[in-house]
């Protein structure tokens, strides 16, 4: 059985969208060291996206390239978790403007990297050897992202009254989006059947343990979930993704066929 | 990135004359070390004016690196390929790293990063005026790498031999990365020049806007440069503004030819007798006007730095509060 391309796109889109978001802090971080740390996270994620798109393009054949996949697909074709496309602030509609909130950034990076350390770890045994190699590299990077975001989560939660309130608000805002991790999309189902992917559902206890442990150390509470489960990974996104992609893809699309 | 005329005066260096200058053994030792082209290290005695000049110069340089993240950062989200996006993020990140080494180098002179940032945010301390111009098309990123980083290298390579040890050592590392940036910028432009007519037009447009500003980066003509003589004496400045500018022009003209762009100066031509390129008049009135805060982006650049700092206050406070709590917990456990 061959590697389901949609699954590779899911992983790649996750990485490029979160990489794009993290890079937004470049020049605006709370302290110079954090500008650099988030640039690093972003670089790692974009690097992961490139390798995954390249593998997908290779399997697709024809004139597919990493940049065609990143720049010339529309929002409904993107397969990333909705969590990753959200702006760095609380719940607001797509065309609302607000200041970036570092707590939102950190909590999101934490929730995602706490999942991905387990995903990449499992994917090292993927039946697709290219994906297994990408996973090994990504695991190292993601362990650093987890470390970085967890440290800040704890500092914020157990810092000042204000930082605690902001971190708790970000947890309350973002935690519901993680429910999407535990549903199974057709692409994931096919990849698991082909032994290309691992079953994410099986990672839930390990993720829960990581999250609960960090929240406890940060003196934060985990909200109960009830409600809508997002479906970004099947192409049904929030209002925010088309803005993100509009900005990211605009220049490339204004010059189709150009080489950069 | 950068350092221009690091002898652009700002308010921080005033009242030097008040410092007493009674000759002493330690002063003689300092002078002797400078004369022998030796290095001054943080623990060494140094004249107050030397210390202040260095703090001013190194902090201006550090501020330039940090403010310089903004014009290029402007294109990260819109980079037209993932490869170029990654290269640009890495470049802007390098500039942040240069800022960090330089703040650290200046801190060895007894001024804290907070004090230096306060100087920047209040508008008292200057930064390279090249960053007060907007980046209007994607080719600006390549042109900044090629010309702005290129000019910075010309300015900074001599500083690798600067008399102050920590600054000289920081410059060695910075210069390596700046030349990497310059090559990457130039390479990106080569690719664009081999591309479509629109891409070539973008490159030419960016060169037209940045060429003269880059020449001004070397600072005012030697005749009008009040700090240069003392800087030369102290081994803080090694080559004059005009000599560096000429060197930059001579190196850049052939690169522009290979690239296939026109440098926007009708007076630019080889002078056989001088063995250098002649060039036209730099608009110094415009330069000074921009240095004084009236360029196209001064207000946006500074306000953005101030906003990032203010918005980040709660994050820095959280880190401090947490560190304090951890310390208290450790003390309690030990007791
Ligand atoms: Fe730099
Ligand atoms: Fe640079």
What report would you give on this structure?
The complex is a heterodimer of chains A (260) and B (335). By secondary structure, chain A is mostly helical. Chain A has a single domain (5-254), classed as Ferritin, core subunit, four-helix bundle (Ferritin, Up-down Bundle). Helices cover 62% and strands 0% of the residues of chain A. Chain A has 10 helices and no strands. The longest helix of chain A has 29 residues, at 32-60. The mean pLDDT of chain A is 97. Chain B is mainly alpha-helical and 335 residues long. Chain B has a single domain, classed as Ferritin (Up-down Bundle). Helices cover 63% and strands 2% of the residues of chain B. Chain B has 13 helices and 2 strands. Chain B has a two-stranded antiparallel sheet. In chain B, a hairpin with a 4-residue loop joins β1 (269-271) and β2. In chain B, α2 packs antiparallel against α4 (82-107) and α4 (82-107) runs antiparallel to α7 (165-193). In chain B, 47% of the residues are buried. Residues 13-19 of chain B have low confidence and may be disordered. Chains A and B meet through α1, α2, α3, α6 and α7 of A and α3, α4, α7, α12 and α13 of B. Bound molecules: fe (ii) ion (2 copies). The site of one fe (ii) ion has 6 residues of chain B, from α4 and α7. The site of one fe (ii) ion (FE2) has 6 residues of chain B, from α4 and α7.
């Amino acid at each position: 059985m061959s590697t389901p391309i949609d699954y590779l796109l899911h992983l790649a889109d996750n990485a490029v969208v979160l990489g794009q978001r993290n890079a937004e802090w470049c020049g605006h971080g709370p302290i110079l060291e954090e500008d650099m740390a988030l640039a690093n996270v972003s670089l790692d994620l974009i690097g992961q996206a490139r390798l995954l798109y390249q593998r997908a393009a290779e399997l697709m054949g024809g004139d597919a390239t990493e940049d065609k996949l990143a720049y010339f697909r529309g929002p409904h074709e993107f397969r990333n978790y909705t969590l990753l496309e959200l702006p760095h602030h609380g719940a607001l509609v797509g065309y609302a403007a607000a200041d970036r909130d570092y707590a939102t950034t950190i909590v999101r990076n934490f929730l995602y990297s706490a999942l991905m350390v387990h995903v990449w770890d499992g994917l090292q045994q993927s039946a697709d050897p290219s994906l297994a190699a990408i996973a090994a590299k990504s695991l190292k990077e993601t362990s650093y992202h987890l470390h970085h975001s967890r440290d800040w989560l704890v500092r914020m939660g157990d810092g000042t009254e204000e930082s605690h309130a902001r971190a708790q608000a970000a947890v309350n805002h973002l935690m519901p989006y993680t429910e999407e991790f535990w549903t199974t999309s057709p692409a994931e189902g096919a990849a698991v059947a082909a032994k290309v992917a691992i079953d994410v559902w099986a990672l839930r206890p390990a993720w829960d343990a990581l999250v609960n442990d960090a929240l406890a150390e940060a003196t934060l509470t985990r909200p109960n979930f009830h409600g809508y489960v997002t479906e970004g990974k099947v192409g049904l996104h929030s209002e925010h993704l088309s803005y993100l992609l509009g900005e990211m893809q605009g220049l490339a699309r204004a010059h189709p066929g150009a080489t950069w | 990135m950068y350092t221009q005329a690091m002898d652009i005066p700002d308010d921080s260096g005033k009242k030097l004359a008040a410092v007493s200058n009674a000759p002493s053994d330690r002063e003689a030792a300092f002078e002797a070390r400078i004369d022998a082209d030796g290095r001054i290290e943080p623990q060494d005695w140094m004249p107050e004016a030397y210390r202040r000049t260095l703090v001013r110069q190194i902090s201006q340089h550090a501020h330039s690196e940090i403010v310089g993240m903004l014009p290029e950062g402007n294109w990260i989200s819109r980079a037209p390929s993932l490869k170029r996006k990654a290269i640009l993020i890495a470049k802007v990140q390098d500039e942040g790293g240069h800022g960090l080494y330089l703040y650290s180098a200046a801190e060895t002179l007894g001024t804290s990063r907070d004090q230096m940032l306060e100087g920047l945010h209040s508008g008292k301390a200057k930064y390279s005026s090249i960053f007060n111009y907007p980046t209007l098309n994607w080719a600006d990123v390549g042109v900044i790498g090629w010309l702005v980083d290129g000019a910075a290298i010309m300015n900074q390579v001599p500083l690798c031999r600067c008399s102050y040890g920590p600054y000289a050592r920081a410059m060695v590392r910075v210069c390596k990365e700046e030349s990497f940036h310059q090559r990457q910028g130039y390479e990106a432009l080569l690719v664009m020049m081999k591309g479509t007519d629109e891409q070539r037009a973008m490159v030419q447009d960016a060169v037209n806007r940045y060429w003269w500003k880059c020449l001004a980066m070397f600072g005012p003509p030697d005749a009008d440069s009040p700090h240069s003589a003392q800087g030369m004496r102290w081994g803080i400045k090694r080559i004059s503004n005009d000599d560096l500018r000429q060197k930059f022009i001579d190196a850049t003209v052939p690169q522009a030819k290979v690239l296939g762009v026109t440098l926007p100066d009708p007076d630019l031509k080889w002078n056989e007798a001088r063995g250098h390129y002649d060039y036209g008049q730099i608009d110094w009135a415009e330069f000074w006007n921009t240095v004084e805060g009236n360029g196209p982006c001064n207000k946006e650049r500074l306000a953005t730095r101030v906003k990032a700092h203010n918005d980040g206050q709660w994050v820095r406070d959280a880190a401090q509060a947490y560190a304090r709590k951890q310390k208290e917990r450790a003390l309690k456990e030990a007791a």
